[in-house]
Amino acid sequence: MGHIAFNDYGEAEYKALSGPSVITFKNPSQVSLSIRASALVFEDAESRKLLSLIERVAPSDVTAFIMGETGTGKELVARHLHALSPRRYGPFAAINCGAFSESLVESELFGHEKGSFTGAIASKQGWFESANGGTLFLDEIGDLPLSTQVKLLRVIQQREIVRVGSRKAIPIDVRLVAATNVNLEDAVKAGRFREDLYYRINVVPIQIAPLRNRPGDILPLAEHFLSIYKSRLQTRQPALSAETIQLLHQYPWPGNIRELENVIHRALLVSDGIELRPRDLNLPSIQLGSGTSSAGAVHEAGSHSVNQQTCTLDKALAEMIQHEPEKLYETVNRKLVLGAYAYCRENQVQTARVLGISRNILRTLLKQFGVIQ
After folding, report:
1. Over the stretch 92-104, which tens digit does the pLDDT of each residue have?
2. How far apart are CA 321 and CA 226, in angstroms?
3. 276 φ, ψ to 5°?
4. Whether the model pTM is above 0.85
5. In angstroms, rounded to a whole number, what is the distance separating the alpha carbons of residues 274 and 144?
């Protein structure tokens, strides 16, 4: 198995083994509690197309725009782009744009001068300066506030940054890789994302298919995670029963690679150590059509369920509208947001994904409803 592991600087370490190619972080245990995918394989035909695109794009210096659901491995793709590029010996910096408040995100990106705001006791480099000569990965770029989007556009155009509290421009040489798990075209139409910035970052779009659409990767990833957690737990590696393999391919994996890793980890803890059986996976039951067991059947069943739910929602909304209650929009909006927030166990990133909005917009709504300060 060709195994490429990335350290904290995006540098790749390659080990020639037997089997499929696996791309991981150098210390995957450090990301085990995050929502990021900690491994990628390229066994499925869809994944091989992705790898071919990465290899063609990597040597150039153009901005790459990675799109994909949470847990599909967007950061690993960004790191692989860096590792295959002429910038491989330069730094690789990664930042989640939704992880900082609106008041701090510009300081994080562009740096600040001493005394430029309360708490700025010393001058500090931003992420653009830290990545100078290398690659900067901006994850969840759709979460950037509009005011920061304007400044980011200027940085991309002028190839220079101005620290907060300074008037001096600093030249930078950075390759930008952006990523999102939301539809930025919809965000542009809704006025949440600048159209000119969208076209600036969408030079080379790279779409990562969800795991359910690349079934050829499921078994190699499962075997990889079995090997990883077998070593960590100091136990033997159980075999996968035929029924377990079938279930792994039938399940739609809404949480993608991240969910698969968690499932394998948990299964190893409860299995007898000899064979991994379907009950060890503890997956939600899947309603398949009569006589079918394909992923397509799962998709059709899910689509039918969504259609039924939409009809029920339409009827409920129609009844509410007929009664003309006060603050109807606010009531419905509040119920939807707080219901999703409770369902996601108050995880803001997951709630934003479920609702199809950015984390910044979600935080604004939660503040408006008095849930957070």
Report:
1. 999 998 888 877 8
2. 53
3. -90, 120
4. no
5. 48
Confidence of residue 236 (pLDDT cuts 50, 70, 90): confident
Query: 101-128: buried (b, 16+ CB within 10 Å) or exposed (e) per residue?
Result: eeeebbbbbbbbbeebeeeeeeebebbb
| Per-residue pLDDT at 299 exceeds 60 | no
Q: How many CB atoms lie within 10 A of CB 132?
A: 17
Q: Confirm if 72 and 214 have CB atoms less than 8 A apart.
A: no
Report d(CA 96, CA 106) in Å as an integer. 13
What are the structure tokens assigned to 124, written together?
């500090």
What is the C-alpha separation between 307 and 304, in angstroms, rounded? 5
Count of CA atoms in the C-beta half-sphere (13 A) of 249: 16
Task: State pLDDT tens for residues 337-364.
Answer: 888 888 887 888 778 888 888 777 888 8
The whole-angstrom separation of Cα 337 and Cα 89 is 45
Which phi-psi region, left, alpha or beta, contains residue 109 (left: φ > 0; alpha: ψ -120 to 50)?
alpha
Of 5, 175, 200, the C-alpha closest to 91 is 175
The two counts, helices (H) then strands (E), for the chain are: 15, 13
3-state secondary structure of 33: coil
d(CA 269, CA 264) in angstroms, rounded, equals 9
Which contacts (CB < 8 Å, 24+ apart) does range 320-329 have? none
DSSP helix/strand/coil, 136: strand
